[in-house]
């Protein structure tokens, strides 16, 4: 099964004037690290300057929505506002209903943040049935899939530019 990434974009985007935040969970470190590296690499390839990519952590995926809100507010208070946020997490199904509850709550609240913060909040949370699925989507199994972090970086740049006040 091959899953394609973002696909063709409608034009070339220059992210050189953007400031992008990445907030990631610390659970499933190997998978998370790969996804963060993929997002950062894509952001840099689209012109986002290394000093304008701000990376911060929270304990787990459930903390991503509130952490993203606090991260956004913190950067704004410092006079360094973010143009988009990529919350990155990995949820892997276990033997209880915990997975379903965390997936639903996290997804709903991250989507809501787009409207509350009025900036793009990219859905960078893998919700997988197995660890192997998560590893594949993080680009850790050669030839199986690509690193979804790259898609999230591209989406952040496109959304921040396409719908900003200056476009």
UniProtKB/TrEMBL annotation:
Gene3D superfamilies: Lumazine/riboflavin synthase. It catalyses: (2S)-2-hydroxy-3-oxobutyl phosphate + 5-amino-6-(D-ribitylamino)uracil = 6,7-dimethyl-8-(1-D-ribityl)lumazine + phosphate + 2 H2O + H(+). Its EC number is 2.5.1.78. The keyword Cytoplasm does not apply. It comes from the Eukaryota. Belongs to the DMRL synthase family. Catalyzes the formation of 6,7-dimethyl-8-ribityllumazine by condensation of 5-amino-6-(D-ribitylamino)uracil with 3,4-dihydroxy-2-butanone 4-phosphate. This is the penultimate step in the biosynthesis of riboflavin. This is 6,7-dimethyl-8-ribityllumazine synthase.
